[in-house]
Structures are given as structure tokens and as C-alpha cells.
Specification:
HAD-like_sf, HAD-SF_hydro_IG_5-nucl, two-stranded antiparallel sheet, ten-stranded mixed beta sheet, globular, 16 strands, disordered N terminus, HAD_sf, alpha/beta, disordered C terminus, 3 domains, binds magnesium ion, Rossmann fold, magnesium, metal ion binding
Length: 512
């Protein structure tokens, strides 16, 4: 009963769309003819209420039977997920970004960045008073200052929900001339978004025209670096697992390099804390202040050597030596000096534009994205509340799709109740992740813009580098074959649990 229902629920598109086309054709499989016949006619006695109610109850019963099977295959939040097939056997060289890839920060850093930027705004743009305070009010889907703007108001304000291409941010997610909508893509964006909200709120309350330029030019990075260096233990969250990952790669004879936009002393102090004073022995090449994504595109910027005392030397660089730190440079020179080309290189970063996009599109390195939110989202997805909500939402959607063919008044009244229930389920599914934004990976049925970019630019993705500790270095990552809209999902994970998936909670223990 359970598998049959799953098949019915998933195959509604085939039943309705393909049934008419295929009926009577010699190649129509018997099961498809059966399904088509089953839903093309209504009840023999014409009692639509009883007929629809019976199907509703049957779907409910089937979902209840299916849930134990789904719940027995929970995803491990520390798993690595693949967009493309990739074997670690082929990877000889591992590269890393620094911030939010090797180093993770405590929430104190958000407060530091917010307060620093706020003080700069107050001091440099005296229009804003100290009443901005230290807000931690979370943001929501549509906001004006701190006020939630309903979806319908947003749609009215922008004449729909479509964002014209010319208003979107540029390729790297930044706002520039004409591209007014900036994308906030990394964890450093959290205090920035909060400050924007505060400033907007202040402008609205004081009837001041909003000027994006006012806060665009607040440069807090230098001040942030000095504050973090002065109190490393307060701001860097943990280091043991990063250290263990690097040790594992070194013990397996892998080469390693670091390319970061952060400055030398900041990285040195952080890595001393995370890995130890000998951290440079693990890395074959260290590049600081690389100015990614320019590093990947601008051939003109040369490498410079930085001395242990932070002095920049101007000698032409003919080789990148182990144990030394280099500044700036560009990828073309890097490839020439190291010979590390193509798919034997795997680079990890947390910013899918600045770190990963160019490498994927132009240079052919393999890429790994670090997405910390993945852990909390997977933990939620493993709860029975989420499983029950999503299973019933999908089954109810399948019922609606099939039963919409009954246009009589009584059927339509029942279907309206189902549509209402479906909307409540969708709202509930969004609230489970985040009451304002929902999941960062999905918006209702569809992948978010972020996920689409992630799928394009990252071969693999995981919540933290430490996930690598769960796999040996010969492991091959296989992406799941997810059904396309015109494909029958008969090979989906639900019908054959574990057949095409990543390791689940039980199996992953064996891989270490
Ligand atoms: Mg980073």
C-alpha cells in the first residue's frame, strides 16, 4: 500500500499529462494504463463528496504508513553533498579561503562589525545620531526599516514579484551603476544587513530621503582586523577540527595552499590559534590580500613577498616558496609558477561568487562550498514535524493536481478547502526553518536563487570543512539523480531508500 501510494502521489503529472497521449498506444505500460483509467472517471454514484473524501483519507493513511520508512533514513548533517561526480582519489592539491572556511567566528564578531560601522557612520555622516543603538532585531522577507512589509505590498510597490535583469546586482552579487539590488552572500553580510535596516528605519522616522551611498562607503575591515587580532579567543570559535582536517590531508601527502583577501598578520595570528605556530609548514603556498575575485581575472597584478615583520618586498617573484607569505598576485601567474591546473585541484570557499564562480567557469578547478546553515537545516529536516509536514504537503499537492479535473460546485468547494490546507502547510514548512525567510535552499517547491548558484559553482558542498573527516581520501561523491519535471520519479530516494544517496547516519560511521 505504501509504495503504491508513493507512486500515485509522485506520478500525477504522468497520469494526467501523458495518459491521454499514451492511451491506446502499443507501448503504454499496463501500470500507466491502470493509473490513467483510475482517475479519468469520477464515482459511479456521482457522490463527489464521498469520492473525494475517500481519496483524501486514503492519501492520509498512505502517508502515515510511509513516514516510518522515510524516518529510518535521516541525513547526517555532517555529510558532504555533490552537485557533480567527484573522486577525492583524483585530488592532489587542496586550496582554501580563510574567513568562514578555515576560521569560524563567534557572534561577537557581528556585534563588533555592526558597532564599528555604526560609529563610523555617526562620526563621518553626522546626519545619523547615536540613537541607532545596537539592534539585533532580525530581518524579514520584505522590510522597510524594522517593519515587515507584506508580500502583497511588495508586489504592489514593485509592480509584481519579478526583478528585472538590469536591476539585479552584477555577476559577483554587488550593486553598481544601474545594478541597484545587492545580494548578501556571506556571513559578514549579517551585521551589514542589520545596519542597513537600522539606517533605513532612522531615515523613515525622520523623513529623510534614503541614500544608499551614505552607507556603501563604510570601511570597517581594517578596524575589524585589529580588534580580532587583539582578542583572538573571543572571536574565533573553534580550531580543533580545522587542524584535524589539515593534518589528515598532510598525512596523505596532499599539497595545500591558502588564498585569502585578509591581511598577513590577521591570518598569521588566527592560524597560530587554530593550527599552531607551525601552521605554515602545512601549506605549500600562502597568498594574502589576494583581492578575490580580481585575483582570478586580472593578469596584471604581480605577487609580492611579505616578510615576517609584515614588510612588503618589491622583488620580482620567480617562485612561490613554502613557508613564505605572498601578497596580491593573480591566478594566471599562480598557475604558471605552481603548475597546479585543472581537476586535480580542489578549492574550498564560503563565498560562491568571489571564491568559486570564476574557478568553475574559467579555470576548471574543482570547488567545494562551505555552507554553515546546512547543519541547522538538515537537523530540522530530520525532525518528525518536518517529515510529516512535507510528506503530507506533497501528497496533498498530488491529490489537488489529479482531482482538479472535477469542476462541479461541490468538488470545487472541497478542493478550495484542500488549497487552503496546502497553503497552511507551505507556511508551516517555511516557518520550521525561519519564520521570516524560510529555508535558504528552497522557496516552496523551487530552489532558491542561492541554491541555483550553488549548484552551478560548487562541485560539492558541506556545512564545515570538518565533514571531510568523515570520508577517506579515495571516496567518490555521486550526485543523486533527481527527477526532472518531465521524468517519472520512480527511481526516487523514497522508493529505494539509500540506493543513490549520500551516506546516512548509520553508514557514515563506517567511512571514517
Ligand atoms: Mg571567506
Amino acid at each position: 500500500m505504501a509504495p503504491a501510494l508513493s507512486l500515485l502521489g509522485g506520478c500525477c503529472r504522468v497520469t494526467l499529462a501523458a495518459g491521454r497521449r499514451l492511451t491506446g498506444s502499443p507501448g503504454t505500460p499496463p501500470w500507466l494504463r491502470h493509473l490513467s483509467a483510475r482517475y479519468s472517471s469520477g464515482p459511479e454514484d456521482g457522490d463527489m463528496r464521498r469520492y473525494l473524501s475517500a481519496h483524501y483519507k486514503e492519501a492520509r493513511r498512505g502517508i502515515n504508513e510511509l513516514i516510518p520508512s522515510i524516518s529510518s533514513n535521516l541525513f547526517n548533517p555532517s555529510a558532504i553533498f555533490a552537485n557533480n561526480e567527484m573522486s577525492l582519489d583524483d585530488i592532489e592539491i587542496y586550496g582554501f579561503d580563510y574567513d568562514y572556511t578555515l576560521a569560524f567566528y563567534s557572534k561577537d564578531l557581528h556585534t563588533l562589525i555592526f558597532n564599528t560601522a555604526r560609529d563610523l557612520l555617526i562620526n563621518e555622516h553626522r546626519k545619523i545620531e547615536s540613537s541607532l543603538g545596537a539592534h539585533d532585531k532580525p530581518l524579514c522577507k520584505g522590510i522597510s526599516g524594522f517593519d515587515v512589509v507584506s508580500d502583497s505590498e511588495v508586489i504592489e510597490m514593485y509592480q509584481g514579484s519579478h526583478v528585472p535583469l538590469e536591476q539585479m546586482s552584477d555577476f559577483y552579487g554587488k550593486s553598481s551603476e544601474g545594478n541597484t539590488l545587492k545580494q548578501f552572500m556571506d556571513i559578514f553580510s549579517l551585521p551589514e544587513m542589520t545596519l542597513l535596516s537600522c539606517v533605513n528605519d532612522y531615515f523613515l522616522k525622520n523623513n529623510i530621503d534614503y541614500e544608499p551611498d551614505t552607507i556603501r562607503d563604510v570601511h570597517v575591515k581594517g578596524l575589524m582586523y585589529r580588534a580580532v587580532e587583539a582578542d583572538i579567543e573571543r572571536y574565533i570559535r573553534y580550531g580543533e577540527r580545522t587542524r584535524a582536517v589539515l593534518a589528515k590531508l598532510a598525512n596523505n601527502g596532499k599539497k595545500m595552499f591558502l588564498i585569502t583577501n585578509s591581511p598577513s598578520s590577521f591570518v598569521d595570528k588566527g592560524m597560530n590559534f587554530i593550527v599552531g605556530k607551525d601552521w605554515r609548514d602545512l601549506f605549500d603556498v600562502v597568498i594574502v590580500q589576494a583581492e578575490k575575485p580580481n585575483f582570478f581575472n586580472d593578469k596584471r597584478r604581480p605577487f609580492r613577498k611579505v616578510t615576517d615583520r609584515g614588510v612588503l618586498l618589491w622583488d620580482k617573484i620567480h617562485q612561490l616558496e613554502k613557508g613564505k607569505i605572498y601578497k596580491q598576485g593573480n591566478l594566471f601567474e599562480f598557475l604558471k609558477l605552481t603548475g597546479w591546473r585543472g581537476s586535480k585541484v580542489l578549492y574550498f570557499g564560503d563565498h560562491i561568487y568571489s571564491d568559486l564562480a570564476d574557478l568553475t567557469l574559467k579555470h576548471g578547478w574543482r570547488t567545494g562550498a562551505i555552507i554553515p546553515e546546512l547543519k541547522s537545516e538538515l537537523t530540522i529536516m530530520n525532525t518528525s514535524e518536518y517529515i510529516q509536514t512535507m510528506a503530507w504537503l506533497q501528497s496533498l499537492t498530488g491529490l489537488l493536481e489529479r482531482m482538479q479535473i472535477y469542476r462541479d460546485a461541490e468538488s470545487q468547494m472541497i478542493l478550495q478547502d484542500w488549497i487552503k490546507e496546502r497553503q497552511e502547510l507551505r507556511d508551516m514548512a517555511r516557518r520550521i526553518f525561519n519564520p521570516r525567510f524560510g529555508s535558504i535552499f528552497r522557496t516552496d517547491h523551487n530552489p532558491t536563487y542561492f541554491l541555483r548558484r550553488l549548484s552551478r559553482f560548487a562541485d560539492i558542498y558541506m556545512e564545515s570543512l570538518s565533514c571531510l573527516l568523515n570520508y577517506d581520501l579515495h571516496y567518490t561523491f555521486y550526485p543523486k539523480r533527481t527527477p526532472l519535471q518531465h521524468e517519472v520519479p520512480m527511481w526516487s530516494e523514497q522508493q529505494y531508500p539509500g540506493a543513490f544517496g549520500i551516506p546516512f547516519l548509520q553508514e557514515i560511521a563506517q567511512l571514517k
